[in-house]
Structures are given as structure tokens and as C-alpha cells.
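INFO batch 0412 | record 1 of 1 | parsing
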Amino acid sequence: MTWKNEYYELTRQLYDALLVSEYSSGAYDAARAFIDEIVHKAKTPDEKLNAYTHRIMCLTSETSEYGKALEIGFEILSKYGIDIPLCPTKIMMAKEQMKYKLALRNRSVSCLTTFPIKDDPLLALCQQLNTCATYSGKLDVVKLLNWKIIQYSLKRGSISSNLVPIFARCAIVYARVNDSKKCNEFAVTARALFPRIRDDKKNYVQSMVVLCNAMSLLQPFRSLTGPFLQSYKDCKLIGEVEMCLIGLQGYAQCFFDAGCELGPIFESKLSVVEEYCRNLGRKSSLVLFSMYRQFALNLRKPSSNPSKLVGEAFHEEQVLSELEGSAHFQMLRDSSSLRVQLAFVFWNEADMIDLLKILETYDFQDQFASRLHNRLVFTGLAAFAICHKKGYASYTALGEKCLEHFKKSGSVNARPVYLFLKSMKSPSRDAFRKAIEACAKGNFVNLEAMVNERYAAFLREEKDVAASNECIANAYFLYQDWGAHAKALQLSKDHDFLKKAKRKRARSFVNTIGSNHKIASRTVSNTSHDATSQSQNATSFSFNSTLKQRKILRLSFGGK
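INFO prediction complete | emitting C-alpha cells
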């Protein structure tokens, strides 16, 4: 192919198409060859932007070196008049924030929803850098980059479809710094732009996944299992492998966090994804979903040591021995987070101590809000469970750190956890009752079962056997509702009276999005304890069932 004047435009377009093709097929070296050719031969800066963007994408897809990609990206941005340092000072942040506010003129970011949509390759590059900054944990850089992007869009008088996933990530960033007002503002703006970008399938599905992650900080986990699962299906349909797997990871995490019913159907979904990852050669994702499936199996099926992830789906020691560096570090974090939950459920104090020694080395940040939620919930619970033992009082500080995190969190999922942690830190009848009520109201069946069991242990120490037995019975039926039959079996072996325990009415447990469930009363002999979950004025959030029906996408606030 020649770059002569008469064939210049055709040649440039062909090279761009070949670049995209090679990148999409995973041939990163071949893609880099086309990138170098385009950067060297293209005449204008705008014609080089697609190549620059794919240079960042090749680096992050192949090596996940987000920090290095960010450094290269900012060097590129400086050529287009946008200067952003990797380590902005407080003075610079204050100055840039003032410029940002002056540009908006007391308007909300939602004012951009009325702007015309036009393709802009510079915003495509900014989208990639926004992702790199988020994954690198550079929150100030993310804010600064987004202020610059918004100012650029306001000055240009138009937006592009790339702005939607950028805004969705903004919502996540503001949620991580506990700014629920800004989080809500960017999430609503991103949602409002959804119908206008439905023809851009790539940005549509990316925005869907990212917005689901943002909404997990604003809505109940249970209401997001459906949207996450649908985002997985839609991403898979159009070949967006990375976002597809992120969507399913969000689904699994929300499923576990919400206490949705475990069972063969859920496990079969994970098995299908494992085969999908195996066919694509995605070893890290294969390991992750195998681990999720083993976690579910440990709760459902009896085993000799249920707090260890060893079984038909996953063998932790074997897998970790094959990993090195950051892959080992991250996988150990994920496996330990699941194992500490199992250790708390099955009350294995030795394993709780060993796992806390691992988990205390990790910081309180994560790109997935649902994954961080799960880790901090059971790190805190295990810390308070162990700190009362002689020689382990130092874990009180770790538990209090987790407690403080949920106290400051604006998430609707935080209150039941906060009250549960408080009851473990300072046990009392009133503290446990409040925790049980909050878990029942939020429909966290898993947490409600655990609180009842811990309350029973407290009442047993208080010599109130009748009340303790009633709480054990409640926990027994709730564990069955959750699908944790291995734990229910453990309770029935430890407490003979459970063989005669009866339930007035079975709990209605259907995993539907945004549904409210009544908490059934449980009885031991003739004693009953009734609790009814109240309907919440929560945000409903649903995605369409197919890409062809995107118009039914909706997000209504105030429960309407």
C-alpha cells in the first residue's frame, strides 16, 4: 500500500481498519506495527488519534500496566493542548476545580445531555486514560482528567458516545470517596445518555457494565444481579470479551453479597462461563469463576473442611502455586476473602486468624464496589469474633476500621452490615435485635442467618436457653433459604431440638429484580417470632432483555 497523495485517504483508512482487526484478534505485535506506520505517515494530529488510542489499549490488554499506559497517554494528550500531571498538587487541584465550576456556570453535568453527539477520537483516547487512572487508584488524576474532559466538551459544544462510560466511571470514583451527591449526578447523567448511544454497541455495553458497578453503591445488590447478567449476555453477543467477563464477575459478586439463593442453577451458569474462559484461553478468569463455584459448593454440600477452597471445582493451593507476582497477590486476596466468609459461617476460629493475617495486608480500595464490600464485611466480622480471645486484641483496630468504612458509606447496603459489626464489637440484646431487623428489612438472608446464630451464642452465655434455641431455629431455616445446606446440616447435628423445629410458613424466596419479600415466621415448638420486611422507596434499575429492545431501558428514582 502506498501513502501517495492520490491514495493517501484510502491507505490511511485501510491501515486504521487493519489496526482494529489485529487488535481485536489479540495480535498486539502486528497491531503495533500498524500503529507505528500510521503515526509516522499520517499528516494531521487528528488522523493519528486512533493509532494513539490503540497503543494504550494494546499495552493494557497485554500487560495490564495501567500506570505506564497512563504516563504514555498523558504525553500524547499534551500534544493536543491538555496537560495533566501524574501527581497533581493540592493547589493545582483547587485551581482546576475552580476552572471546572466556572465552565459549568452553576449548571449540573446533566446539561451535557442536550448537546449533539458527534464522533471525537480525542474523547476515545480520554476514555482509555480514564480507565487506566481508575484501575491505577489515582483518584485525583481521575477527577482532574474528567474536569478537563467536561470543559473540552462544553467548549466544543458537542459530546461523543465515549462520554457515557467516562461518566459512569466518574460515579464510581465519587462513590469511593463517599461523595454520594456527585456519584448520583454522574450516574443519572450517564443513564440519561443511554438511549442516545444505542447504535454505538461497544460504548453502550461498556457503559452498561460500568454503570452497574456504579449503581452497586447506590442500590441494593439484589436489584443489580439481573442487569449485570444481561450485560454479560449483551457483551458476549457483540464480542466484547473483557466487558463480558467483568459483567459476570459483577453478577456473581452481587449474587453473593445480596444473599441470593444458592443452588445448581447458579452453579451451572458459572460452569458455562468457565468453559467460555477455557475456550478463550482466559486463565485468570477461569480460575476466578472456578473459585466462585467452589465457594457455593462449600456452602451447599458437606465437606470435611468447608473453610478451605478444595473440591471438584477448585483447588486453592494448587492454583496459587502456579501464579506469580501481581496475579498471585490478587488471587490470594480473592480466595482469602471468600474463605474468611466460610470460616465465619462455619465458625473455624483457627482459619479466621490465619486469613486475617493475610487480609490485613490489603488496602481498603477496589475497582469493584461489591467485591470490596464482601471483603470488608467478613474481615470486620472475623476481626471482632477473634479480638475477644486472649492474645488477639490487636484485631480490634482492624474491625473498627471496617466498621468506620461502613459508617461513612452512603450505600443502601451498608446499614445492615454496620449494625451487625456493632453487635459483634459490643454484644447486647438491643444491638443484635437491631442488626436482625435491618438484615430482614434489606432482605439479606445470609447476614440475617449469621446474626441470629451469633445472637443465639450470646443468649446461651446469658443462660437464656429458650431464646437461644429460638434464634438457632431462625438461623437454621434462614440458612436453608440461602441454600447453605451444609451449614444447616451442621446446626442440626449440634442441636438435636432442630429435628422437631417447625416453621409456620415457608419463606418465599424468589430472585427477582427489585422485589420485596416477606420474612416468614419461624417457630420452636409453640414459640413464634414474626418479622416482615417493609417495602423500600428505592431506585429501580433495569436493562432491556435484548440489544434490539434498548428503548425499554429505564432508571426511575423515588421508587416510581
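INFO post-check: The beta strands are 502-503, 522-524, 527-529, 540-542, 554-556.
INFO record closed
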